[in-house]
């Protein structure tokens, strides 16, 4: 009877530890960044692990009011590529943050906690 109670208390302690580690990991995601480019480097977008665009560089030669659509397409492409590239960094960061608290469960994706 007391064994089950101790197991339950241990589990609750692990959950509190997990919550604390996840909060800390989420706070640290703003320091993880990724920059991607499009148009041969003429447009560069930088995003952070909290999935926020934190920088955008546009080559002066691209700024042409007559070619607005191409510039928009290049910006979207650079931003989307940066978001795609940061995803593995987010997963790795969250896995390291919860290492030892959660059992290694194949297929467990903690990246979903960030959405």
Automatic annotation (TrEMBL):
Location relative to the cell: Cytoplasm, Nucleoid
Keywords: Coiled coil, Cytoplasm, DNA-binding
Main location: cytoplasm
GO CC annotation, single: cytosol
Gene3D superfamilies attached to this UniProt entry: Nucleoid-associated protein YbaB-like domain
InterPro entries: YbaB-like_sf, YbaB/EbfC
Molecular-function GO terms, alphabetical: DNA binding
Presence of keyword DNA-binding: yes
Keyword DNA-binding: yes
Coiled-coil annotated spans: 8-35
Family of this protein: Belongs to the YbaB/EbfC family.
Subunit note: Homodimer.
Summary of the function given for this chain in its UniProt record: Binds to DNA and alters its conformation. May be involved in regulation of gene expression, nucleoid organization and DNA protection.
Protein name (record): Nucleoid-associated protein FEN17_11520
Source organism phylogeny: Bacteria, Pseudomonadati, Bacteroidota, Cytophagia, Cytophagales
């Amino acid at each position: 009877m007391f064994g089950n109670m101790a197991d339950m208390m241990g589990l609750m302690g692990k959950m509190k530890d997990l919550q604390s580690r996840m909060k800390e990991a989420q706070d640290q995601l703003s320091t993880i960044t990724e920059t991607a480019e499009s148009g041969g480097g003429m447009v560069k977008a930088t995003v952070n692990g909290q999935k926020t665009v934190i920088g955008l560089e546009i080559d002066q030669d691209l700024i042409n009011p007559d070619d607005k659509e191409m510039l928009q397409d290049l910006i979207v492409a650079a931003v989307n590529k940066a978001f795609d590239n940061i995803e593995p960094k987010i997963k790795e960061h969250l896995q390291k943050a919860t290492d030892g608290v959660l059992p290694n469960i194949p297929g467990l994706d903690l990246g979903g906690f960030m959405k």
